[in-house]
Amino acid sequence: MTAKPDKTAPLFWLLFAGGGTASAMLLPAMVFVTGVAVPAGWVAEDDLMALIGNPLTRLVVVSLVFLFLFHWAHRFRYALVDLGFGGLGKQAWLFYGTALAGTGLAGLAALRL
Amino acid sequence: MPEQTVLEVYRYLPDEETEPRFQSYEITYRDSWVVLDALDHIKTEIDPTLSFRWSCRMGVCGSCGMTVNGEPKLTCETFIRDYNTETIKIEPLAHFPVIRDLVINMQDFMEKLPTVSPWLITDEDKPLEAGEYLQTPAQMARYKRFSMCINCMLCYSACPVYGLNSLFTGPAALALAERYNLDSRDEGTQERSDVVTAHDGIWRCTYVGECTKVCPKDVDPAGAIQMLKLSYALDWAKSLVLPGRGR
Ligand code: FES
Fold first, then answer.
1. Beta strands, E only, chain A
2. Which protein residue has the closest C-alpha to ligand 1 atom 1?
3. Could you tell me the distance, in angstroms and rounded to a whole number, from the CA of residue B52 to the centre of ligand 1?
4. Cα B195 from chain centre
5. What is the pTM of this model?
C-alpha cells in the first residue's frame, strides 16, 4: 500500500479544532455580554461600543466569527458523510462557502458599525 | 436455578447460501455463563455445524468478538444474565465479510495493521552489550493505555466511518501508531507519518467515539486519533514556518 500525506487536511482540521475551542470558550461569553449583560444594563452599551470601535477588536471578532462558522461547516460536512450522504467532495463547498459568506457579512457589519 | 433463554444465531455459508438466516436455539443456561459458554453448549450438545472463533476464554486473545444484541462484544466476558431480553441475538462483527456463521474474514485488518509499523523503530540499533532501553514509569504511562489493544476488531465493527469507507486505516491500527509514537524508545514518528496522515488515515475520523465506547480494554482509540491529529497538524504548521522541520 502506498500512502502519501494529505496536504490540505491539517489546515482544515486546525481551523476546525480552533473553531471548536473558540466556540466552547468564547462564544458563550460573547452571547452573555451582548445578549444578556448589555440589555440588562450590567455593562454600559457605550463601553461595548467603545471597545468594538477599535479596529483591532473588530478584526478579532470577525476572525472569531470565521472560526465559529468554519467549525460548523466542517462538522456538518462530515456529519453528512457519517449519515451516508455521499462523498466528502460533493457538499464541501456548500458548507465552506456558507462559512465564508457568513464571515463576509460579519465583515460588512463590522465596517458599518 | 436454571433458566431458559433463546439465542437467535446468525447462520451463513456464503458458498452455499444466497442469504444469511437466523436460527433459534433454546437453552438452559447457568447464571455464570457468558455468551461464549452458551455457543459452546449449542455446538457440543445441539448443533455441531455452528461455527465461531474463540481461544483464551479470558478476554486476552481478542478472537471471540461478535455482535450481541446489536453491540460489538467479547463473548467470553459478556454474561447472559446481563441481558433481560427474551432472546439474545448473536451476529458476526459488522463491517467484515463473513466466512461462515459467526466467523469473519479479518484480512483487511491484518493488512492494515503492519502499515502503521506498530513496533519500536530506532535510527540505529544499539549493540546488545549496551544493555536495555531504559524507561521511567512516567514515560511508560504516556503510552500504556494505547498498548492494551488485543486486536479484537470490536472498534472497527463499531466505527461508522470504517463501515462507510473500508479504506479508512481504522481505530486500532491508528491507536497503535500513537502508542509507538509516544514511546520514549521509539524514533519512528516520521516513518509512520505517510500512512497515518494519508487521505484515509487520521483525517477520516469524525470523532464519533464508538470505538472508545466498545473497547473492552479501555484503549480509547478515538482519543489516540485526536492526539495524532493535533501532533501531526502542529508539525505541518511548523513545517510552513520553518521549512525542513516538519514531517
Ligand atoms: S476468547 Fe480470547 S478474548 Fe474471548
1. none
2. B57
3. 11
4. 18
5. 0.89
